[in-house]
Design the sequence.
């Protein structure tokens, strides 16, 4: 068995029979296309199909826009929720800080009140001691005066 070379230039040239078949197919294809373009039923069907395809495409776009809008709204809600949580934490921190500050202030007032009370008691004691000392001094002077008078 001998094989023909596969890369021969002669193999690339179509034979008359092949050329006739190709032209016949081309003519049938053109006739079919012309029949499709001229047939009102097929034109109506293709028109409806294209309209339906266009509507579906439009509907897909609308659905995609709606989904994008919902994603953006969800993102916005998430951002707002995070902001609200941060704000709430900041407010709680501020309230706790103010409460602690008030407690410290009350404690300082109470300490100051106690210190003032102690100071007042010490002043009262000091005043009492001065009064007793003055009384004692006056008695000594009187005793000295009496002793002087008795000597004379």
Sequence:
């Amino acid at each position: 068995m001998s094989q023909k070379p596969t890369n021969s230039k002669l193999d690339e040239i179509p034979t008359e029979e092949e050329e006739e078949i190709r032209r016949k197919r081309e003519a049938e294809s053109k006739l079919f296309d012309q029949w499709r373009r001229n047939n009102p039923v097929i034109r109506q069907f293709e028109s409806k199909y294209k309209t339906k395809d266009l509507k579906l495409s439009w509907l897909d776009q609308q659905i995609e826009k709606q989904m994008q809008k919902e994603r953006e709204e969800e993102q916005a809600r998430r951002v707002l929720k995070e902001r609200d949580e941060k704000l709430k934490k900041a407010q709680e921190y501020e309230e706790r800080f103010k409460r602690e500050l008030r407690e410290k202030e009350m404690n300082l007032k109470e300490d100051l009140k106690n210190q003032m009370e102690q100071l007042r008691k010490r002043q009262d004691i000091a005043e009492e001691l001065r009064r007793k000392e003055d009384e004692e001094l006056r008695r000594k002077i009187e005793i000295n005066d009496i002793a002087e008078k008795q000597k004379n």
Remarks:
- The chain has a mean pLDDT of 90.
- The helical segments are 9-12, 16-38, 40-151.
- Residues 16-120 form one domain.
